[in-house]
Fold:
Amino acid sequence: MVRWVSVAVVAAALAGCGEGGSQTAATETAVHPGEQTYTRFCFSCHAAGVAGAPKVGAAEQWAPRIAKGTAALLQASIAGIPPGMPARGLCSQCTDQELGDAIDYMISRSQ
Structure:
């Protein structure tokens, strides 16, 4: 735990380094609205392909799912996909909009 705190402190300190008046890459790049939900709830399965989850970035795995349409993907996410994906991907507090944004984020990185 202490190591991660140390890393965070160093990263925060270095974020202020650089030429005066220039923006960092983080502020220049718009953050996708689904990125936070993906990072908090979807990443653990979709980054590694756990239980058959399509890996983010694997276009061949996402293509047949994308072909079904985002509405179908959202409904599957809400209901769950037995036996691997639980209802709402274990994000019971996520709104349908947040789940849809996370799906869009994963698709945008998997085409």
About this structure: Residues 33-111 form a domain with the Cytochrome Bc1 Complex; Chain D, domain 2 fold (CATH 1.10.760.10). The chain is about 55% helix and 0% strand. Confidence is low (pLDDT under 50) at residues 1-22.
